[in-house]
Amino acid sequence: MSEAITSVLEENRSFEPPAGHQGYIPSLAAYEALKARFSDDFDGTWGDLAGQHLLWREPFTRVLNREKAPFFHWFEGGMLNVSENCLDRHVAAGLGKRTAIVWEGEAGQVRRISYTELLADVCRAANAMRELGIKAGDRVVIYMPMIPEAAVAMLACSRIGAIHSVVFGAFSSLALRDRIEDAGARLVITADGGSRRGAVYALKPNVDEALSEGCHTVRHVLLVRHGGNEVPTVPGRDIDWHQALNVQPAECEPLAVESEHPLFILYTSGSTGKPKGILHTTAGYLLWSRLTMCWSFDFNPAEDLFWCTADIGWITGHTYSVYGPLCCGGTTLMYEGVPTWPDAGRIWKICEDHAVSIFYTAPTAIRALIKAGDEWPAKYDLSSLRVLGTVGEPINPEAWMWYYRVIGKEKLPIVDTWWQTETGGHMIAPLPFATPTKPGSATLPLPGIDAAVVDEFGHTVIGDGGLLVLRQPWPSMLRGIWGDEKRYVDTYWRKFGSRYYFAGDGARIDEDGYFWIMGRVDDVLNVSGHRLGTMEIESALVSHHQVAEAAVVGRPDELKGEGICAFVVLKGEFTEGLAAALRAHVVSQIGAIARPDDIRFANSLPKTRSGKIMRRLLRDIAAGREITDDISTLEDQTVIEQLQQRV
Ligand code: WT7
């Protein structure tokens, strides 16, 4: 058992929520009451919430249609528009002057965009996209740095019913090409470049490279000038974003679409095959983005400044940098740059300068900040903070305690949120002013969410570890995998006969009903809160001409949570510098987040008699742990020694 898990199992501290503040859900009793409402009338309660929180053009006639389970339909008959919900209705309510987005660049530049301005930009972008022939249902790939134009592009898609697919800017051109092709995108929106560590990195050349082969559906590239770096353009195909928007009117009638109209596709890694395009639709996703802003963060749009540090290339950036805060009519902060640039105080400086009140980040960032030292947060006035959130991987109690003590001054609630790309928004999280917290536990399922821990047969397990499942559908659930219905059913619903959604995580429920997430039970790695499939990295390695076979496993990493260890069998002789070359190869195939930390070479890989790679054995070797597997049946015993050798 890893040290992190042992310490979680021994954790018994508990902290009361801060007193004196009435949150949306002000007490555990109120939480229980809301839960009871869901048990009494599941559909009716969801229906009431959807009616109250969203602006509908046509009211829905049915809350939940389970007839085609596990393909669930929410809010049938309803018509609405996401950008209208995020923009027009706030302007109409007299909030046009309120800041929607505060953006800070790495060099310290600041832009403040009001709701009125954002609406105008979104309308111009939507008109420009229409002029390029983009219609409802068309796919638009967004490959951009963390700049307001990225949010404008997302909202503009929703305004005309186009489906966006944001690809994280650090993914390679090959990874980008795969996604463009799988989605069948008609348009790519990108920027010349972005800022990182005081320098400009180029994005547009990756788009050119991606489009140099295949990608026949792409007609145009909209190019935002931001980095100022020289980039080649293709006449007729490439169009300057600002020029295109400038000639457009600042009004664009929002297209009302059905509740289940696709809003976006977001690619994420699975245990097998290529990344899957997770499909989210309109009404349910938007409802839950807004409700979880209220419930988990106690977001008050009139007063709070909300900062989620995630890039919009991930689901966290979608739901909590863009849709959640804007659907509530509040202010969201976007920062483009490295959080520790020019020094480890940058995050806290931003919190002070903008008076951030709700801060949401990942355990990997917290661990890096701990390492940098307590003197950095001590330099800044953090008194505006009132809620601290974390997401992406299990948070070790030590990191939790530091967040609580050093940043929260033992006064602020720590909101550890468990969820996934597939769930659209938080599933298990404390209510900041109601739920007592325990370091390392995401605490209790949110109202309306039926989470449980079960054994292989679907029987509830209390006290011991088991598989985390969701036993009822929820509005922001994925609606499928783009272009692959079978994979959707197989991955999430096959295991428990279409009754339970299988999350792929292991978890334990303690005597208070608190959930302790133990991490993935499949071949998915979580590296710095980024999800990667071992098979994806293996395929990347095997595509190198000198590699015959490869196996990739995770190993505990103090900062990143999990590190990547690759075991490689070569076709020919080992050559000097091969490990570095293979690392670079993986980076070019997938992106820098997939770079192996450790590569080891051997004549063969340890396999069972039936020919399966002994992954648990490899994980033990990678972590430098004692080997527990029976290796007496291995043909070549020396392989183990070879694999234990670092290059
Ligand atoms: C996987 C989902 C949800 C946005 C970021 C990641 C792990 C996520 C927690 C948490 C323990 C967590 C799980 C999950 N995870 N949040 N609070 N505690 N583990 O989204 O890339 O879809 O990854 O991240 O293993 O399955 P994702």
From TrEMBL:
InterPro entries: Ac_CoA_lig (IPR011904), ACAS_N (IPR032387), AMP-bd_C (IPR025110), AMP-bd_C_sf (IPR045851), AMP-binding_CS (IPR020845), AMP-dep_synth/lig_dom (IPR000873), ANL_N_sf (IPR042099). The keyword Ligase applies. Acetylated. Deacetylation by the SIR2-homolog deacetylase activates the enzyme. Its EC number is 6.2.1.1. Gene3D superfamilies: 3.30.300.30, N-terminal domain of ligase-like (3.40.50.12780). ATP binds at G392, E393, P394, D416, T417, W418, W419, Q420, T421, D505, R520, R531. GO terms for biological process: acetyl-CoA biosynthetic process from acetate. Residues 90-482 form the AMP-dependent synthetase/ligase domain. Mg(2+) binds at V542, H544, V547. One of its GO terms (cellular component) is cytosol. This is Acetyl-coenzyme A synthetase. It comes from Mariprofundus erugo. The lineage of its organism: Bacteria, Pseudomonadati, Pseudomonadota, Candidatius Mariprofundia, Mariprofundales.
